[in-house]
Amino acid sequence: MNTLIAYSTTLGCTEQCASKLKDDLGNGVEMVRISRRRRYNLEQYETIIIGGSIHEGMIQRSVYKFCENNLEVLLELQVGLFVCCMDPDANEQELIDRAFPEKLVKHALSSGFFGGELNIKKMNLLQKIMTRKAARLQKEPEIDFQKILDFARKIQEL
Ligand SMILES: Cc1cc2nc3c(=O)[nH]c(=O)nc-3n(C[C@H](O)[C@H](O)[C@H](O)COP(=O)(O)O)c2cc1C
Q1: Model confidence pLDDT, tens digit, residues 8-27
Q2: Residues 3/92/138/143 CA torsion (nearest 10 deg)
Q3: Which of 18, 49, 65, 116 is the most exposed place for a label (fewest CB within 10 A)?
């Protein structure tokens, strides 16, 4: 398997999910944190899995830009998409549709919502204030490890 997991994380949860996905997929999988300064040689991979987390209703801008900037190449490869967020009742398809460019969503062979975590220890004051109200209203968010495994199985079947 010649696969790249390209992800962005604000507080570490998406990185944890990407790492679990890498383990579930087995050999031949690399992980890279998306950065605006990095150049990618995506053609060398068979499969690219792209993930990020939702903050204030949006995926990280760097993730969206990565998809836009590499769209042509991505449309030639096998693609999987995933997101992390704290709303357990979020509609998976809506999340994916909002987070990634439409053409890529249509092209993707697998997409998933892996749950989320509120990593309070890593938050700055503003992030704590922004999430306090929502966190009180909902049950504690958690990563859905079974969904990550199911996603990995789907990718392995490609
Ligand atoms: C400032 C802030 C804003 C957030 N906004 C949303 C949101 O709009 N919708 C949502 O479902 N989750 C929201 N979350 C929860 C994150 O998506 C969740 O904690 C996710 O697991 C974070 O992943 P990361 O640690 O990889 O950034 C927010 C979290 C923070 C800290």
Answers
A1: 999 999 999 999 999 999 99
A2: -20
A3: 65
The whole-number pLDDT of residue 135 equals 58
What is the 131 CA–ligand 1 centroid distance (Å)?
8
- Residue pair 10/120 in contact by the 8 Å Cβ criterion: no
Q: Quote the tokens at residue 2.
A: 């010649």
- Ligand 1, from 16, 86, 95, 129: best to mutate by most atoms within 8 Å of Cβ? 86
The finding on whether 56 has its CB within 6 A of some atom of ligand 1 is yes
Give the domains, in start order, of the chain with CATH numbers. 3-156 (3.40.50.360)
CA 134 to ligand 1 center in whole angstroms: 10
Percentage of the chain beyond pLDDT 90 is: 72
Cβ neighbours, 10 Å, residue 28? 11
Looking at the chain, the whole-number percentage of residues with pLDDT higher than 70 is 95
Where the chain has pLDDT below 70, the residues are 1, 133-139
